[in-house]
Amino acid sequence: MPSAPSPPWPRPLMNDPEIRALLYPLLTEGVYVDELPTGTTRADVVHITPAFMHGYEVKGDGDTLQRVANQLRCYGEVYDFVTFIVTEKHVLKLLPLLPEWVGVLVATPGQELRVHRAASYNATVERAPLAGLLLLEEVKQYLLALGLSGVSTLRRREVMTFLRTTHLVPLSGLAHYVRERLIARLPERLLHRAERKAERQRIGNRRRRKPTHKAKTTKRKKQAAA
Asked: Which CATH class is domain 16-117?
C-alpha cells in the first residue's frame, strides 16, 4: 500500500519586522516615520511627501484584526492614502472591513509585497484630527499666520473645537503645513531614536558586565576553598 504523501513544508511566518523591511525600499520620495501617533492609535509607517501622506498598517501572521475599526477611523481622518499590508491568512477576513478606497498589499512567502488593491484618494480627512499630528504651538503658529489672533490663548481642546467648526481654515493649506512640519521634524526624530538606541545598548552592556548573585557566591566559595 503506497504511503501517504508527506505534508508540504510549512512556510516561514512573516511578522512586522520582515514586512516593514519589504516596504521601506518602496518609499523612495519624501520621508517615512515609524509609529506616528494618530488619534487614539499609532500608524505603523507613514510616508510623507510635500504632496501627500500615506499611512500604512502592518498585520503579520502573529497579529489579529481586532483593532482595524479604530485604526481605520483614525487613519481616515488624517491621511490622503491608507494601505493595509497583510499576510495571506488575513486577506479574506480583512476585505469586508475596509472601504473601497483603502489599499491592500499582501506580503508573500517569496519576500515581496503583492498589490491586491491600490489605495485611492481619501476624501474624509478632517481639520482637527489632521492638526492633532502637530504640537499645539505649531498649530497656533499656523492659525496666527492666517490672522486668527484669538487662538493665541486657547488650550488644545479649545483649538481642536475651533478647527471642527470653522470655515476660516482651508483644509488644503493646513494639510500642506502639517506635511512641512512633519518632514522638518524628521532629523530630530532620528536623533532621538539614535540616542534611545545608544542608551539601550549602554544599559545592556552594564547588565552583561554586572556579575550575578550566583556568580558572586561561586567566586567566594572558590576563594574560601583555596
From this structure: alpha beta
Q: From first to last of its 226 residues, what are the pLDDT tens digits of the chain?
A: 555 454 454 566 788 889 999 999 999 889 999 999 999 999 999 999 999 999 999 999 999 999 999 999 999 999 999 999 999 999 999 999 999 999 999 998 778 899 999 999 999 999 999 999 999 999 999 999 999 988 989 999 999 999 999 999 999 999 999 999 999 987 776 666 666 667 767 777 777 776 555 555 665 666 666 5
Contact 142, 177 (CB under 8 A): yes
Domain ranges of the chain: 16-117, 127-198
Closest to 84 measured CA to CA, from 56, 61, 124, 62 = 56
